[in-house]
Amino acid sequence: MSIRRLLGxxxxxxxxLSGAAGIWQLSDSMQKMQAADWVVRVNHLADLTHxxxxxxxxxxxxxxxxxxxxxxxxxxxxAQMFNARGRVDRQYQVFHEYLQELLAVAPQHPMANALTxxxxxxxxxxxxxxxxxxxxxxxxxxxxxxxxxxxLTGRIRILQNFVVVSMLPLPTNPYAxxxxxxxxxxxxxxxxxxxxxxxxxxxxxxxxxxxxxSDRAQLVxxxxxxxRASARFLEAAPYxxxxxxxxxxxxxxxxxxxxxxxxLREQVFTASLAGQGYPVTPEEWYxxxxxxxxxxxxxxxxxxxxxxxxxxxxxxxxxxTLWLLAWVVLALTLLFGFTVYAVRQRLLxxxxxxxxxxxxxxxxxxxxxxxxxxxxxMGHLAHAMEQMRQSLLDDRVRRETDAERLRKLNALIDNxxxxxxxxxxxxxxxxxxxxxxxxxxxxxAESIGRKAGFWGVGADCA
Length: 462
Fold this sequence. Notes:
Shape: rod-shaped
Distance between the termini: 65 Å
Structural class: mainly alpha
C-alpha cells in the first residue's frame, strides 16, 4: 500500500471517528438540555396547578357555605363566590393554554391521556354552578353542599394526580426524569385537606347546624392527613437548603397551625358534637383557615423558587456544555483541515517531487538537480538524493574520461611498430597486438590464454 493511500485512509478514519463522536456528543447534550428545559416546564405547570387548586378550594368553601342556607346567604358571600369563580376560570384558562404548549412539545407524553378527565371535571363544575345559582334565587336545586364539596374535591384530586403524571419522563428522552418533589407534594396534601376542613366547617357554621355523620367522617380523615402531612414536613424541613425567607415562612406556618388554627378547629368541632353554638362567625373561620392555607402555599412557593433556581443552574450547565462541545467540534474540524493541508504541503507534494527525481535518476537523466525543500525529514531526504545524483554524475564523468583514455591507449597499442603482449601475474597471455601476429605468425585467438614464450626462443618479440 502506497504512503499516499495509507495516509488517505488514516485521515478518513480520523475524520469519521471525530465526526461520529462529535455528532453523538452534540445529540447527547441537546437531549440533556431538552430534559432540563422539560423539568422547568413541568415545574411551572405544577405551580399553575397549585394556584388553580387554591382557587378551586376557595370557591368550594364559599359555595358550600352558601349551599348551607342559599336564601339566607349574605351579599358579601355571594360576591366572594362570583369573584372566586372568575379567578378559577382565569387560572384554568392559563393552566390549559400552558398545558397545550407542553403537549405540542411532547404529544406522546402520558399527560395527553389525562387531559380528557381534566376537561370533563371542568364541564361538570360548570353544570353544578348553574344548579347553585338556581338555589340562590329560590329555585329548587338538585345539588347539596355535600355533593358540591365532593365534586370540587374530586376535581382537585384529579389535578393533584395530573401533577404526578406530568413528572413522568419524556418517552424519547432518557434524561427527562423530573424529580418527585416530596416537600411540595406534602404541602399540596396539607393545603388540600386544610381546604376540605375550611369548606365543611364553613358550611356548618354558616347554616348554624351540627355536623352530619358524613361531615364528621370527612373531618376526621382530613385531620389525620393534616396532622400527618404537617408533622412529616416539619420533621424534614430542617434538612432543606438554608434559606432565610423559607425558614421565616416555615416558622409562621408552624406557629399559626399550632397556636391558632388547630385550637379553633377543635373548638368548632367540639361545639358541633355538643350541639352548642359555634364560637366563631363564618367570616372569622374563613379568615383563620385561609391564613393557614396561604402560609402553606407561601412555603410551597418558596420551595418552588429554590427548585426553579437549581433547575435553571442545571439548564445553564447543559447550555454551557453544548457551547463547549460546539467549540470542540469546530476545533476538531479546523484541526482536520489543517492536518490535510499540512500533509499535502509537507508530505504529499515533496513525495511527488522526490518520486519524479528518482525516476529521472533511474532513467539516466542526471542533469536535472533535485529541488531544495524545507529543512525537515523530507528536505533531508531530498538533500541526500541530490548528493547521490551528483555522485552518480561525477562517476559518469570519470568513467567517460577513463573510457576515452583507454580508447586512446588501445589505439596506441594496436598501432605500435613493436609486438606487444600483456599477461597476468601467472604469465598467461591476455592481449597481443597486430604486430605480434605479424612477427610470430600466431593470431590473437591462438595466443591468448597460453604461457608467454610459447612461440620459442629467438623469436622477435618484446
